[in-house]
Amino acid sequence: MQDKQQEGCKAKQQEGCKAMILLKREKPGRWIVRKFLGAHNHPLVDQLPKSRQKLDEKDKKIQELTTELHIKKRLSTAYREQLLTFMKDVEDHNVHLSTKVQLIFDNLKKLEAERQELLQHK
């Protein structure tokens, strides 16, 4: 009985609704909008029954956990990118330090050779 009352209300709400779309076919596969009136005087979507309007607790928990998982995944991706950037910086710095250490080692070898040469000439 309630369904019939709802249908009656729905029909009354939609009476006098001026919303419309008028299409014209120009060629096969090509249509154009000739007229569009989008103002409705009724809801466009039927409302859910009251029993399903509110998600039950399991659905809410699943939704919360899914949202939390998406947030954690985004954070994890951001942390991973930061870690990879940091590791690249450390590697670049390591190469730079290795080059400097090699230069120092080469200079010490030259100085030692020059010192040995000076000692031999004395």
From TrEMBL:
Q: Which InterPro entries match?
A: FAR1_DNA_bnd_dom (IPR004330)
Keyword Lyase assigned to the entry: answer is: no
What residues does the FAR1 domain cover?
Answer: 5-45
Protein's UniProt keywords contain Coiled coil: yes
Q: Which residues form a coiled coil?
A: 48-75
Alphabetized, the UniProt keywords read:
Coiled coil
Pfam families under this entry?
Answer: FAR1
Q: What is this protein called?
A: FAR1 domain-containing protein
**Organism per entry:** Hevea brasiliensis (Para rubber tree)
